[in-house]
Specification:
single chain, alpha+beta, elongated
């Protein structure tokens, strides 16, 4: 019993000391939040259920103590006037005593326990000034419905020539005009008539005016040479001399006017003096020199035109190529190089081409005869990219539905081919075929059943993607072709030489895909045009970059003129001239000279002289040295004559009624 009283006294003293500590005001720099943090760092035993057990009941009177409090915090937690009582450790099996009443201070609520699972939840406080906040979404995926499984597409796989293929739908061929020369098929056109379709008189007059202005500008700057303003007839003769030099090749321009030499040429000096030809070549200018200065001031801006010096002639040539001929169904797009090493931003280097340095032209040509339908000069990387790529823009600019019509078959190499381009052409009712690069976007890259290096020669693999079909064929190496107008394989075969084990070579047939066969048959339109141009090209060295392209425009005009001549003769069912004969006829017509000239008289060496020059007696001079006449003997007669031909050394009669001398030489 004594032990119980002693324990009660100790507990009462402890309660009194704790209440006095809580009634002391908080010092500056200390807040209840720090107390809260401090409680977090306390021993975890204080946060257990034991801290909520009531202590022993002890009644103790305490003297009032003044309390100093800090200003209330605006938050709901700090707005209460009571503070929770401080928790202390109480033995687990000891009965709790009722709390003592403090008359001098308001009651302070107990501190919140940190074990919410053992305490009743407080009633929710309603905030009238703020809207209710939605409940937080649960992050546990087990309460969300599982997504439906998506069906994975079947992996692509290359098919073989044994698998059937469905032919794609190809638009019907509907050209805007009849595919032929847009000239009268009943009229007769000479070579110069066809050439003047591309170099009309109005264009020549513009070139003469600009050339005269350029010569005056050069002479004002101190250049010293003879100059007389040229006219239209003189400029046509200048073009004729250029074509003459294309057919008669010499090492130097001066050699064409060389005189008193075994290899002298009589024609150039009859057409134009050498100094006049040189002065025209030095001052040849296609655009207005005054407008050139204004255009050069715009360099570095979007308004600068790099091809300004070519526009007066280039636009005329392009319009003529499109106006006087309409291509057939199969056309080809390819690039062409004009040899030049001029220091301009437009000069390109292509190591895979026969002409590695020069200007690059993108050409649309008829695959049937090599006619140049349209072209564009590449000026370098564009400052304003279109977003589709250079090859896409080139093809779409050359293939114009308003001019061509629909249903055309366009062939191109792997520089231009892409699925994006082929689909765009298909939407415009054009079919396309060409080799492609495997790294192009949207091209199939699957290796399922693909060709390998060990595949047999003639093996075929293909994949169809809507209107597009991708075909791979193993020849001496792998060939990749894409098309929107062919099936994969139609039973075609090609001949190839195969080496046998004994070292001999034999021919064998191997299967060939349809797109490859058609590509080889129709892709050579631009190459055919290049071949015709190179036969009699007017290109030669010059100091100005735009003159290289002037000579090339001249080559385009002469080649297209010859193709028009052949097509007209085919329509009229007549025999066309050969290419060389056409160029010869055109050259003489431009120079104003006849093709066939009269023979130049040779100094007379065939004169009659006596056979016996020295006779001993003048009375026997007429009878001495008589010989049988060769002409009379050929006629079956025997006649003697004292005369003979000095050059031929043949005895011939020279008489009043029988002139065997003249008859012999005429025959």
């Amino acid at each position: 019993m004594a032990k119980t009283l002693i324990l009660k006294d100790v507990l009462a003293a402890l309660l009194e000391s704790s209440d006095e500590d809580e009634r002391v005001s908080e010092p500056d720099g200390f807040s209840s939040d720090e107390d809260e943090d401090y409680d977090h760092r306390r021993d975890p035993v204080e946060d257990g259920e034991d801290s909520q057990l009531p202590g022993p009941t002890v009644t103790q009177a305490a003297s009032p103590v003044p309390v100093t409090r800090s200003p209330p915090d605006p938050t709901p937690q700090s707005s209460s006037t009571t503070r929770p009582a401080k928790r202390f450790r109480t033995p687990q099996h000891q009965p709790a005593s009722p709390p003592t009443q403090q008359p001098s201070s308001p009651a302070r609520p107990a501190k919140r326990s940190r074990t919410p699972q053992h305490q009743p939840a407080p009633p929710p406080t309603q905030q009238p000034s703020s809207p209710a906040r939605p409940a937080k979404r649960s992050r546990t995926p087990q309460h969300q419905p599982a997504p439906k499984p998506t069906q994975q597409p079947a992996p692509l796989s290359w098919k073989t020539e044994k698998d059937p293929d469905i032919a794609p739908s190809v638009s019907r061929f509907q050209p805007a005009r009849t595919p032929r020369p847009q000239l009268s098929s009943t009229s007769t056109y000479t070579p110069i008539d066809l050439f003047k379709l591309f170099f009309p008189v109005q264009t020549i007059q513009t070139l003469c005016q600009n050339t005269n202005k350029q010569a005056a500008k050069q002479m004002a700057q101190g250049k010293k040479y003879k100059w007389l303003d040229g006219n239209i007839g003189e400029f046509y003769k200048y073009i004729g001399l250029l074509l003459y030099m294309a057919m008669v090749k010499l090492d130097s321009i001066a050699d064409y006017w060389r005189q008193n030499h075994f290899f002298s040429l009589p024609i150039p000096v009859q057409i134009m003096p050498r100094d006049t030809y040189r002065a025209l070549s030095w001052n040849l200018h296609l655009s207005d020199p005054e407008e050139d200065v204004q255009n050069d001031q715009k360099k570095g801006t979007a308004d600068h035109d790099k091809l300004f010096r070519l526009k007066p002639l280039m636009n005329t040539i392009k319009n003529a190529c499109m106006s006087f001929y309409h291509p057939h169904r199969d056309v080809a797009v390819d690039e062409r190089m004009v040899a030049s090493k001029s220091k301009t931003g437009m000069t390109q280097y292509m190591k895979a081409k026969p002409i590695k340095w020069g200007f690059k032209l993108f050409v649309l040509a008829d695959s049937r005869n090599g006619y140049t339908v349209d072209f564009s000069v590449y000026t370098g990387k564009s400052d304003v990219p279109s977003g589709h790529g250079l090859s896409y823009d080139v093809v779409m600019s050359l293939v114009q539905p308003g001019y061509l019509g629909t249903g055309y078959h366009i062939y191109m190499d792997n520089f231009y081919s892409s699925p994006k381009l082929f689909r765009a052409l298909h939407e415009q009712k054009f079919a396309a075929c060409g080799t492609y690069r495997e790294n192009r976007k949207d091209c199939p890259r699957t290796t399922n059943n693909a060709l390998t290096k060990k595949s047999e020669r003639g093996s075929i693999r293909w994949i169809r993607d809507g209107p597009l079909i991708y075909v791979k064929w193993m020849d001496t190496r792998e060939v990749s072709v894409c098309s929107t107008l062919h099936t994969a394989y139609s039973g075609n075969a090609v001949q190839r030489r195969v080496k046998q084990q004994d070292g001999s070579w034999t021919k064998t047939s191997i299967p060939c895909p349809t797109p490859v066969m058609e590509y080889n048959a129709h892709m050579g339109g631009v190459d055919h045009s290049d071949q015709l141009i190179q036969y009699y090209s007017a290109q030669h060295k010059t100091m100005r970059w735009y003159r290289h392209l002037f000579y090339h425009f001249l080559d385009i005009a002469t080649t297209n003129s010859y193709i028009l001549h052949k097509e007209l003769c085919l329509a009229q069912q007549t025999t066309p001239m050969t290419h060389r004969a056409f160029m010869e006829e055109l050259t003489v017509e431009l120079c104003g000279k006849p093709l066939h000239t009269a023979p130049v008289p040779v100094p007379a060496g065939h004169i009659p002289v006596p056979i016996a020059v020295h006779a001993a007696d003048s009375s026997t001079k007429a009878t001495t040295g008589r010989s049988r006449c060769a002409h009379c003997q050929s006629q079956g007669q025997r006649k003697d004559t004292p005369w003979k031909c000095r050059e031929c050394d043949v005895a011939l009669c020279v008489q009043l009624y029988r002139n065997c001398f003249a008859a012999w030489h005429d025959s």
